[in-house]
Amino acid sequence: MLSQQRKTEMLANNLANANTPGYKADQASLRAFPEMLLKRFEQENTGEFSLPLQKTIGPLNTGVYLQETMPKFLQGGIQETELNTDVALLDLNLPLNPETGSPGSVFFTIENAKGETRYTRNGNFTLDNQGFLTTASGLYVLDRDGARIQLSSEEFTLDEAGNITDAKGKTARIGVAYSDNPMSLVKEGDGLFRAQNELPDAYGVDGVLFKTEQGFLEQSNVDTAQTMTEMMTAYRSFEANQKVLQAYDNSLQKTVNEVGKL
């Protein structure tokens, strides 16, 4: 029941972020606890002796638990916004990881409030009052060299290779990092991911092809229809287990109130 409740909470969070740019839907991994082997101990009388015996009854399943939740890093749909500060990452060729069998992923590089590097697929950027390119929550977007990007105005252009040119001719290249195993990243909320070690510059990784699109946003990859179906399945499973628990309670109540009177 607890595992189904937590799965329902995870799915509800996915639905709540169905319209969040760059959001990666979580998926649950349920795992069974180890089975227990039941045996019965008894005595067998053979005339003068009483011999202890063991008889195997069989295995007993001890339930399941939610082992972990992992983001699904499939690219979401691309939507045009016509805003200069919106940028989308388009995956063209991302090599498969030989260990996991899954492709890698590219991310924008972000500086959090503590000055640490974080990664996101949410390109819903804006300019603060000093002209720095930031996320919607006010975190700085970094360039390829790990420096903050300062522009003179929103009238800037960004080409498919990530090069930024503003109205005064200043140039920078937006920072994009590559992870060959994005499943190892830790979700922190607000669309940010944390890596155990700093990710390499995606522009310099052989075989990694992507492009940046100005005036576009990557949408959430949440499949609302599938998520609703999974929520109903999890709820029905929770309800079925609840009825089993109620049956045990009724049986125990009957044992205490009626059998005890004999």
From TrEMBL:
Domain Flagellar hook protein FlgE/F/G-like D1: 104-165
Ranges of residues in domain Flagellar basal body rod protein N-terminal: 4-24
Keyword Secreted: no
Biological classification of the source: Bacteria, Bacillati, Bacillota, Bacilli, Bacillales
Pfam families to which the protein is assigned, alphabetical: Flg_bb_rod (PF00460), Flg_bbr_C (PF06429), LlgE_F_G_D1 (PF22692)
Main location: other
Keyword Transcription: no
Localization per record: Bacterial flagellum basal body
Family designation: Belongs to the flagella basal body rod proteins family.
The protein, known as: Flagellar basal-body rod protein FlgG
Domain Flagellar basal-body/hook protein C-terminal: 214-257
Source organism superkingdom: Bacteria
GO biological process: bacterial-type flagellum-dependent swarming motility
